Amino acid sequence: MACESALPAIMDEQALMGLNPNADACYRQRALAYFEQLKESQDGWEVCAEALAKGIYSDDHVKFFCFQVLEHQIKYRHGSLNGAQQLLIRETLMKWLQMQLMSTQSEKPFIKNKAAQVFSLTFIMEYPTVWPKFFFDLLSLVGLNPNGLDIYLRTLMAIDAEVVDRDILHSPEETRRNTIIKDSMREDCIPALVESWYQILQTYQQSHSELTCQCLEVVGAYVSWIDLNLIANDRFVNLLLSHMSVEELREEACDCLFEIVNKGMDPVDKTKLVESLCQVLQSAGFFNVEQEEDVDFLAKFSRLVNGMGQALVLSWTKLSKTGDVKVTTETLRALESKVPLMLQLLVHEDDDISANIVGFCYDYLHILKQLPVLTDQQKSNVEAIMLSVMKKLTYDDEYNFENEGEDEAMFVEYRKQLKMLLDRLAQVSPELLLESVRRVFTTTMQNWQTTRFMEVEVAIRLFYMLGEALPASHGAHFTGDATKASTLQDMMRTLISSGVSEYRHSSVTLEFFETVVRYDKFFIVEPQHIPIVLMAFLDHRGLRHSSPKVRSRVAYLFSRFIKTLYKHMNAYIEDILTRIQDLLELAPPENGFPALLSSDDQLFMFETAGVLIVNGESPADRKQALMRSLLTPLMEAFRLLLAKLTQEVDEERQTALADCLSHAVGFASRTSKAFSNKQTVKLCGCSEVYLDCLQTFLPALSCPVQRCTLRSAVRSFLHRMIICLEEEVLPFIPAASEHMLKDCEPKDLQEFIPLISQITAKFKNQVSPFLQQVFMPLVLAIFEVLSRPAEDNDQTAALEKQMLRRSYFSFVQTMASSGMNEVMANQGAENIERVLFTIIQGAVDFPDPVAQKTCFIILSKLVELWGGKDGLVGFPDFIYKHIVPACFVAPLKPTFDLSDAQTILGPEFIQFLQQEYLPSLQISPEIAQELCQVLQQPDTKVLKNCMKVLPHLLHQIISFCPFSLFLYIDFTLVRVNLWPMFLLSIHRYFFSKPNCKNWKYAGFRNSRPRGQQLSVPHTVQLKDRA
Predict the structure, then answer these.
(1) How far is CA 953 from CA 856, 924, 939, 972, in A?
(2) Is 55 within 8 Å of 40 (Cβ atoms)?
(3) CA distance 277 to 266
(4) What angle do CA 266, 156, 311 make, to 5 degrees?
(5) 939: left (phi over 0), alpha (psi -120 to 50) or beta
(6) Which residues make Cβ contacts (< 8 Å) with residue 209, sequence separation at least 6?
(7) Alpha-carbon distances, residue 378 vs 309, 367, 384, 392 (angstroms)
(8) In 3D, which of 138, 261, 130 has the Cα closest to residue 184?
């Protein structure tokens, strides 16, 4: 042993028994404790090293355990090991590897993978300085022994994962380390490694297919960063191509060739490489896709062809910029010679094979889009791609529409890829796409009764997709281009009049309604078709379809349809409301029967009903009657359910009742979204109806159970009523606020504050008496909630408090900016102090940029309002003691990020300082330039060091400006967007000439006017920042 162990020389056998997965909890706990003991010990790992080197244990779990201990030592303590200990690790690994060479039985894969990780970690720590011959030592030991080569190849893959894999994020230090390793490997050992790979591939291609596949994977992984000429040569490529004919190897050989093709290189050389590969593959018969039955191999081959095609596209793109017409043309010719193969793969019945070639197809279309004129062959290619896409969009017979699983999700994603191709086709040849879709659609609609559902669905789907492939401004597909508008109108007439909405398959039904709503502007041009479509929405085809999925989607689509065409609905309003009446009923929890629509779906139905009533041409009294008939059943059900809830003791029943009550309030609230600036609640005569709703819903705030659900619902309704009813809602606000402030949780308060802010911003002086009463109770409730203790690791509680703070600061900001500062000023000196100190605390102490910004905006506004001679008594003293220091302290906090993009103002402010602001203060250009250069340095340390230079700079500035100290704050914080705004407010309103003409710098601390003194408040959550 390299050094004497503090632990026994033998391992704890009883602890090792706990490594068995079947061991009881006591033994497993002991094994875990033993593992931690060995990890923490300085030399306990040596016991494990000895066990591995001598092969003492045959149990796989013990061997894995020993490698884990060794891995931890290398990963976290390698730097503290002396030379003898590092040598012991190397010797242990090599002795263990030597035992594998002599063993007749291979280790389990999980043991070999862990061993490879330990080898790779050792390599990363010691190469190239301590163990420069790592690979040569490995290769000389293993030779061509299969067991040894297995470990060697797994080690190479583990090294790739640690050093090369771009999917793994590395620190800058790790990136530098990895670069050194790769550079050293290129120089020292890569040729030897490549030679070893060739020998493995050649020797074991028939006898050890797994080993050969491993080696192919290694070649594919390393080819991205080694010299390509070592691999892309006749000897190596011919060997790889021969593997394409071996069933066990060809999938991995495809992947390896893909990585070779994907290697970055000169475009001309890349074209030659791809062409040479294609010639050999074509000669070997691999281009005859129809004759190949192995879909797994074809999926890999499709990926290879896609890589070769995209490589040629990239070469053409680069060469087209050089102006070399000959070479560019040859590359395009080479690319287009692969199009027939691409089409075979694109249209293949297996979607994985087709999906793997979509990238090449898309890039090829992108090239065609750039060409000034298409040849006849290129036009033919475009049409062939179009037909392939149309065919592949079709559903399979096995698609499960009612219980969509993983296969269905994969097909949906595949369809999205095909849609991208369709969009690209529209850019290349919009006329061809329009005509092709029209032909397919018209033919299918003529015979939909005898056509399979998937063909009918895809015909309508293609029509739907035209709406995005051939975009129009605001969905105006039926104006502008006459050919396009005429074709689309013909197709819409066919869709509606064909009767295809009667097709008995949910996919066709849904596609019909989706398409009708996609082209809803058609009905503005031809409104005579509206009744037919309305009936489809309202009967068994739509809202009363047998499938819940269809009903749910149709409820949403019907809402969109009505919102677009409400001006054309006047003749049908009352008929529609009658037909959907049963769909607007509140489903009580004790009903027991499943409703046709969910509560979320009913929201759309209530909004639709509201839109129909509000936007109809009926007089106001009729609108009021219709709205009352819509909402009265909700109010009646609400009263009954609320009475039941107050008496219910079962918690599950309480929850169900509260949810139902919440839905009732939500439905009423949703109807109000129909009102607008033109059609207000008053003009429609509906104020009284909504006031009745308010009176019905507000008693829920005093319900002793399920407070959170009920308060949230009523609060949302109040938000809507403030917008809709305006001043008429004000009498209800005080009582509602009183109830909502009782027994508050953080979330309750956080959601209540926006309501008060909305009232403040909208009604301002009208609610001044109410705000006068509620301001401090609300603030004290917030303080009380924020002061509640919480567990240190309770992230949910911490986030709730952070959001509550933000809401609180936002509320104060609303008060200040809405002219309600007098409400705060009238709260008394002690209370206003508490509020002001929370704002200082938010600006300085909390590492929350959102809250900090709000706090400084508040302070800026308060300086503007209260900083002058007529402002709040004692506030100037508060500015000196707290606001000004906060401007220095906040940006110097370690949590303050001056490099945050949202706080950078940019060079235009520096320009403003140098050219306008500073010269206006008679500051010399030299001093101004010196200051601005310091402030533009990206390193925050420069900003801190600037504080040390402050006296030197101030001495030169003071003679020019009596308030230059405060001007310096602007300089110091010029990098931060909100600070100059805030501090310029101080200059403008507090240190303007009328206010500071009698002040002198030398004595400003003692000579400033004093009013009421602000004492430090004694509060739990605040501290004095003086």
Answers:
(1) 26, 12, 20, 12
(2) no
(3) 16
(4) 25
(5) beta
(6) 246, 248, 249
(7) 16, 11, 10, 21
(8) 130
Residue ranges in 225-324 assigned as alpha helix (H)? 234-243, 250-261, 267-283, 295-320
> Backbone phi, then psi, for 387, in 5-degree steps?
-65, -35
**Cα end-to-end distance, the chain, whole Å:** 63
Residue-wise pLDDT tens digits, 466-515: 999 988 777 788 887 888 999 999 999 999 999 999 999 999 999 999 99
Three-class SS state of 976: strand
Tell me if residue 57 falls in helix, strand or coil: coil
Residue 623's nearest CA partner among 680, 692, 555, 559 is 680
Q: What are phi and psi of 144, to 5 degrees?
A: -115, 25
Whether 805 maps to a domain, the answer reads no
For residue 981, which of 853, 890, 807 has the smallest C-alpha distance? 853
Reading the block at residue 880, the tokens are 């000196």
CA distances from 224 to 260, 413, 924 (A): 7, 29, 59
The answer to whether the CB of 800 falls within 8 A of the CB of 749 is no
Q: The tokens 């819940």 sit on which residue?
A: 548
Give residue 987's pLDDT. Answer: 42
Structure tokens at 707: 């407070």
Give residues with Cβ within 8 angstroms of 625, minimum separation 6: none
Inter-CA distances, 529 with 222, 449, 496, Å: 64, 22, 8
Are 271 and 334 contacting, i.e. CB atoms less than 8 angstroms apart?
yes
How is the chain split among helix, strand and coil, in percent rounded to 5? 75, 0, 25
| Cα distance between residue 779 and residue 753, in whole Å | 10
Residues 6+ apart with CB under 8 A from 589: 653, 656, 657, 659, 660
Q: What is the DSSP letter of 1017?
A: P
Q: Which residue from 472, 506, 258, 471 is spatially nearest to 359, judged by alpha carbons? A: 258
Say if CB 858 and CB 813 are below 8 A apart.
Answer: yes
> ω before 128 within 30° of 0 (cis)?
yes
Asked if 611 and 674 count as a contact pair (C-beta separation under 8 A), the reply is yes
Structure tokens at 231: 């691999």
Q: How far apart are CA 400 and CA 643, in angstroms?
A: 45
pLDDT tens-digit map of 845-903: 888 888 988 999 999 899 888 887 778 888 888 888 888 888 878 877 777 766 655 55
Cα 448 to Cα 457: distance, rounded to the nearest angstrom: 10
Exposure pattern of 1012-1022 as b/e (b: 16+ CB <10 Å)?
A: eebeebeeeeb
| CA 502/CA 995 separation, integer angstroms | 82
From CA 661, how far away is CA 645, in angstroms rounded?
Answer: 9
Q: How many domains does the chain have?
A: 2
| Position 916 in a domain | yes
Backbone angles phi, psi at 411, to 5 degrees: -70, -35
Please list, residue by residue across 572-600, b when 16 or more beta carbons sit within 10 angstroms of its beta carbon and e when fewer do: bbeebbebbeebbebbeeeeeeebbbebe
Q: Tell me how crowded residue 103 is: count the other CB atoms within 10 A of its CB.
A: 11
Give the pLDDT score at 870: 78
Does residue 670 contact residue 606 with C-beta atoms inside 8 Å? yes
In a domain, 349, yes or no: yes
Three-state DSSP at 904 gives strand
Query: What residues make up the domain containing 993?
Result: 828-1026
Residues lower than pLDDT 50 in the chain = 1-8, 943, 947, 950-1026
CA distances 1017 to 851, 853, 889, 989, 1013, Å, are 22, 24, 21, 27, 12
- The alpha carbon torsion through 239, 244, 248, 249 (nearest 10 deg) reads 50
Question: Which pLDDT score is estimated for 917?
Answer: 66
- Whether residue 504 is contained in a domain is answered as no
Gyration radius from the chain CA atoms: 38
Give ∠ CA 211-215-216 in degrees, rounded to 5. 120
Q: Phi and psi at residue 790, in whole multiples of 5°?
A: -145, 155
